[in-house]
Design brief:
The protein is α/β, with parallel strands linked by helices and about 450 residues long. It contains 13 helices and 16 strands. Helix 4 crosses helix 5, helix 6 packs antiparallel against helix 7 and helix 7 crosses helix 10. The protein starts with a helix and ends with a helix. It comes from Muribaculum gordoncarteri.
């Protein structure tokens, strides 16, 4: 081979090395990891840097994780490989015309994961409000009893007269939530605030303590702590000149907090969206029972497992009453109860005892019936008949204990108040609707009726 050919081959080789990273993959691509009966959506957000190389972050919408940094090892016109050290994962795939077919690996396990381009957020979440708005949006703060500063958004309707307007404080469901109660790119509290403002109703929504821009520690908080945070938000609204009657709107655990505040006559009215009316123990047992129904476990084994879980919950509650929290000996409970339980189930229960939170210890013993008996002011309680997290028969408990309550069972709606097929949580992210228009209308009508009395 002459020197000129050798030089040509060398230049081609060098050029191929530089072009290895030159292909720019852009946009969001989504796939689902199948983990037994569970499907976990994963979103890869690709962008092109100034030098033409591909960059990437990962989202896990179901887990509320966004922008997890990843390192792209290479990206060519037909393949992609990246690592995500933050979660000990990697992904490699072949780039097709309209898909990426590949494999996701994490901590020694590999799963097939094919990605499809995701539609723009405007198409996937058409109800999310976008400016310009015909109302005021004001960033503000209020202070919780322990000094935590709650970062909030006050939405005020257009000033049409000198009359005061009703307002509602929004309280999110369980887990650390931002002010929009954002989940899988759905922003239900933002949608509610927008609808209410357009109908002459003010609202205040806030980042949970230790979440977003709010200070405080969420990990040490219980439902009772969160109730006091909400109480401070209502007090803040009462300091505003343009605000008349002030109510509380709570979703899921927030609905239960609405009952607790109602028992203290703090809000002028209450709205519960899928609020828990039975005890925390009963609710969690039901949820566990549904998960077991989705497996191949037989009825006898299911009964034994739920009996064991119930006794663990009882022990946790007894500890909480004494002000202690120590790991429970699962094996001893199994032995003393004479139960036959799958070792994997027992092992899973042992893992829950390794690091218990104050929230779960308190939640198990929380019984909203105690508070509902004391509610005297107007209450609207809504549930969807496809709710698989807080079952719709919670409405019967509310109706029995609060006879004056307005009860609405909405056909076809899930726990998030979306029109659904099965009601399972796995559907939440696939549904374009954030919240049913019928629910929005019911909320606005109820608040308006309360403000005129």
């Amino acid at each position: 081979m002459n020197s000129r050919l050798k030089l040509l081959f060398a230049m081609v080789a060098i050029a191929s090395l530089f072009s290895f990273q030159a292909y720019g993959l852009t946009g969001s691509w989504k796939g689902e990891l199948t983990l037994g009966a569970t499907k976990l959506p994963i979103v890869f957000n690709f962008s092109e840097s100034g030098d033409g190389s591909t960059q990437c972050t990962l989202d896990s919408p179901a887990q509320g994780a966004k922008g997890i940094p990843a390192t792209v090892a290479y990206c060519t016109s037909d393949s992609i490989s990246l690592t995500c050290n933050a979660i000990g994962a990697s992904y490699s795939g072949r780039i097709m015309h309209d898909a990426i077919k590949g494999s996701f690996s994490q901590r020694g396990y590999s799963f097939p994961l094919d990605l499809l381009p995701e539609a723009p957020i405007e198409e996937r979440r058409p109800q999310t409000p976008r400016p310009p708005f015909p109302y005021e949006v004001i960033d503000t703060t209020f202070v919780a009893p322990d000094g935590a500063v709650m970062s909030a958004t006050l939405t005020m309707p257009e000033r049409l007269s000198g009359n005061k307007v009703p307002a509602v404080l929004m309280v999110s469901g369980s887990g650390p939530q931002n002010r929009d109660e954002e989940l899988m790119d759905h922003r239900p509290f933002a949608v509610i605030a927008d609808y209410l403002a357009r109908n002459g109703i003010a609202s205040l929504r806030y980042d949970d303590r230790g979440t977003g821009q709010s200070t405080g520690n969420f990990l040490t908080a219980t439902t009772y702590t969160l109730k006091d945070d909400a109480k401070s938000g209502i007090a803040f609204l009462h300091t505003l000149d343009r605000i008349g009657k002030v109510g509380v709107l709570g979703h899921s655990e927030g609905g239960t907090i609405a009952f607790m505040l109602g028992a203290e006559n703090v809000p002028d009215f209450m709205i519960s969206l899928a609020g828990m009316a039975i005890s925390g123990k009963e609710t969690l047992l039901r949820q566990n029972g549904r998960r077991l129904d989705q497996t191949a476990i037989g009825d006898d084994d299911k009964e034994s497992i739920l009996t064991l879980i119930g006794r663990v919950f009882d022990t946790m509650h007894e500890q909480n009453l004494k002000g202690v929290s120590t790991a429970i000996d699962i094996d001893s409970i199994v032995k003393e109860s004479g139960l036959t339980v799958n070792p994997l189930i027992a092992s899973s229960l042992k893992m829950t005892q390794q690091q218990r939170s104050p929230w779960i210890d308190a939640f198990i013993g929380l019984n909203p019936r105690t508070y509902l008996k004391q509610v005297k002011r107007p209450l609207l309680a809504i549930n969807g008949d496809k709710d698989t997290q807080v079952y719709p028969d919670n409405l019967s408990v509310i109706q029995e204990l609060v006879p004056q309550a307005q009860i609405k069972l909405m056909p076809g709606l899930n726990h998030l108040m979306q029109h659904a097929v099965t009601g399972d949580a796995g559907e939440y992210g696939d549904i374009r609707e954030t919240i049913s228009p019928e629910v929005l209308e019911s909320i606005a009508q109820f608040i308006t009726s309360c403000s005129t009395k």
